[in-house]
Write a structure and sequence with these properties.
GO terms for molecular function: alpha-L-arabinofuranosidase activity. It comes from Curtobacterium luteum. This is Alpha-L-arabinofuranosidase. The chain has 628 residues and is mostly beta strands. It folds into 3 domains: 232 residues, Jelly Rolls (Sandwich); 122 residues, Trefoil (Acidic Fibroblast Growth Factor, subunit A); 130 residues, Trefoil (Acidic Fibroblast Growth Factor, subunit A). The protein contains 3 helices and 44 strands. Strands 2, 3, 4, 5, 6, 10, 12, 13, 14, 15 and 19 form an 11-stranded antiparallel beta sheet that branches. Strands 31, 32, 33, 34, 35, 36, 37, 38, 42 and 44 form a 10-stranded antiparallel beta sheet that branches. Strands 1, 9, 11, 16, 17, 18 and 20 form a 7-stranded antiparallel beta sheet that branches. The chain is globular, with a radius of gyration of 25 Å. 57% of the residues are buried.
Length: 628
């Protein structure tokens, strides 16, 4: 993904729904010499109100969702002096005044501490506090997600892990409680998703606690799917608490996912017996109805179910009801309504969204992490996060929000490196020097097998050759190739993959992708499918340059920087101490030079949660670790 690429044709779809006599296009005029937009006609909340399901909350960082709205969209805060200002509209019913943000934030950075509700309920969202399942959240970076809407510059709300917003039901007005019906939609990104729980938008508990099934009714667009799900994902799903559902069950083969750069996701729930899920490309076309039917039933014998619902009425954006905040998303607009919306109204809203012509150079980071190579460049796929078969794999400037620069190890089979749902592949399954690298459907052939070596190279076992940057060229767009392994800098890459050990267990971090110092490093069942939300903390990157082993942005560390036998391993902020230095050996052991001892599984115990330790190097199976 790179700045110079294009994102395809721009399409505008107009829909005429005579049954409701609704005007769905968003018409605007540009005043000569001013660049300001005149008021739009019917917005999504006007449409829902006309259909008898009025908005009770409406949020957007890009535009007005009512034709008459002329208030603030969100607040920004400067890092330099802590000052805040509200970002409003160019005109009533129009588009965000991004120029006001740019001027206010010039020369410093800004965050978004508040997102304003455009409805008369004033259900404004502020940064979510800590909860049972996650620490306190952070505000979004205000400039992380530049886009255009109807040709106007705007900013989306980029929410990586631990960025979320919330309002408690003691403050929220008009939201569904108990078994009351409600509907909601959002425009989010199908490229900035992961398998972590849970970047939701919708109705959640009064407190940041899991209070049982049916106490949530929220949209979830993610890879957090049931095993056997159809398509590649991400999937538009309902988080109903203690379960994320594609339909009546966690798996619905009719739901094949929505992976476009901008996705319209929709959920409606009558509160008593039925719910529905819809999704579509926010840049063109209509919504697909992925499911409409009965709510899930109690299948685990705990006596709780989803019929009727037990809604508490708080609102969340970017986390789960108990503040599970390990999911990611990019948010552009979304509303919650009273009542179960009609299909005609849903279709009119989708047509209105499409008419906005959302465009963006990059719409999120996606799951996985970067593979850095020579010159500090990143392994990238040609095109703009499109990633079709045979797309060239190349070097490019690293971009934090580039989905096609985020790679996962072993997700689509042993020894694979994948992005955008496809695998790093040797063209034609070739083995010769100079064979070009490409992206291709994961199929298990030898040309898709890659093993990280102790010297930092990445070897293809079928050919015996290594991932290579031709002649060490670091220009953007340099295509990567296979070449004889030679240990040169042109073959040094840093890639995150699972580390396997005795009993085919994986090196894991205690907790569920918790980005916290002091978390125990242990062995655990390998969780290498997108259905497992703990995958991120089993993806480790070995850097042969500084000898660190990293995951979740932190380093494998010896507790207290100790050197004695039995010293426990933990995750800690990278700081360059000797207890964070590791050198893989030819026999599979991992040496800590400061102590002269090795990474060790105590007594070869393969039980889940067995803590790793430091111990005298002995070459035995409990000290053999494989980066693959």
């Amino acid at each position: 993904m790179h700045i110079g690429s294009t994102s395809g044709s721009r399409r505008t779809v107009a829909a005429l729904l005579g049954a409701l006599a609704l005007v769905t296009g968003s018409l605007f005029a540009v005043s000569a010499g001013t660049g300001s937009a005149a008021a739009a006609t019917a917005g999504p909340c006007d449409t829902y109100a006309s259909a008898g399901t009025s908005c009770v909350a409406a949020y957007s960082s890009t535009r007005a969702l009512y034709s008459s709205y002329n208030g603030p969209l969100y607040q920004v805060q400067r890092a330099s002096d802590g000052a805040t200002t509200n970002i409003g509209l160019l005109a009533a019913g129009g588009y965000a005044n991004a120029a006001a943000q740019d001027a206010f934030c010039s020369g410093t950075t800004c965050t978004i501490p508040k997102i304003y509700d455009q409805s008369s309920n004033h259900n404004d969202l502020t940064v979510a506090p800590a909860g049972d399942a996650g620490p306190a959240n952070n505000p979004a970076n205000a400039t992380a997600l530049p886009i255009t809407v109807a040709g106007h510059k705007a900013y989306g709300i980029f929410m990586p892990q631990q960025v979320a917003y919330r309002i408690s039901s003691t403050l929220a007005k008009g939201t569904a409680r108990g078994a009351s019906p409600e509907s909601m939609y959002e425009v989010a990104s199908g490229t900035n998703v992961n398998h972590g729980c849970c970047s939701d938008f919708g109705n959640v508990e009064t407190q940041e606690k899991d209070t049982g099934k049916g106490h949530m009714d929220a949209l979830n667009l993610s890879m957090l799917n049931g095993t056997g799900s159809a398509g590649r994902g991400p999937w538009v799903q309902a988080d109903l608490e203690n379960g994320v559902y594609e339909g009546k069950t966690a798996i619905n083969t009719a739901n094949t996912g929505n992976s476009t750069k901008f996705v319209t996701a929709l959920l409606k729930n009558d509160g008593v017996a039925n719910f529905a899920l819809k999704g579509g490309d926010a840049q063109g076309g209509s919504l697909s109805k992925w499911y409409e039917g009965p709510l899930p039933t109690d299948k685990d014998g705990d006596g709780q179910g989803y019929t009727p619902m037990k809604l508490e009425g708080s609102i969340v954006l970017g986390a789960g009801g108990d503040n599970s905040n390990r999911g990611t998303q990019s948010f552009f607009e979304g509303v919650m309504t009273s009542g179960y919306s009609t299909d005609a109204a849903d279709g009119a809203v989708q047509a209105n969204v499409v008419a906005q012509n959302y465009q963006g150079v990059s719409t999120g980071g996606g799951p996985g992490s970067s593979i850095t190579g020579p010159g500090g460049k990143c392994v990238d796929v040609s095109g703009d996060d499109t990633g079709g078969n045979t797309a060239v794999v190349q070097l490019w400037d690293c971009q934090a929000l580039a989905a096609d620069q985020h790679w996962l190890g072993n997700v689509y089979g042993a020894h694979t490196l994948s992005t955008l749902g496809r695998c790093l592949d040797a063209d034609g399954n070739g083995t010769a020097n100079g064979t070009h690298l490409e992206l291709y459907d994961c199929n298990g052939v030898g040309g898709q097998q890659w093993i990280v070596q102790p010297d930092g190279s990445i070897k293809n076992p079928q050919s015996g050759r290594c991932l290579d940057d031709p002649s060490g060229n670091t220009a953007n767009g340099t295509p990567l190739q296979l070449y004889d392994c030679n240990g040169n800098q042109a073959q040094k890459f840093v890639a995150a993959v699972p580390i396997r050990t005795i009993g085919d267990k994986c090196v894991d971090v205690a907790g569920n992708d918790l980005q916290q110092n002091g978390q125990q490093v242990q062995v655990y069942d390998c969780q290498t499918l997108l259905t497992d939300e703990q995958t991120s903390d089993q993806q480790w990157a070995y850097n042969a340059g500084d000898h660190t082993i990293r995951t979740l942005g932190r380093c494998l560390d010896l507790d207290g920087n100790a050197t004695a036998n039995g010293t426990h391993l933990e995750l800690y902020t990278c700081n360059g101490v000797g207890g964070q230095q590791w050198v893989p050996q030819a026999n599979g052991s991992v040496l800590n030079p400061q102590s002269g001892r090795c990474l060790d599984v105590p007594s070869g115990n393969t039980a889940n949660q067995t803590p790793l330790q430091l111990y005298d190097c002995n070459g035995q199976a409990p000290q053999v670790f494989r980066f693959n």
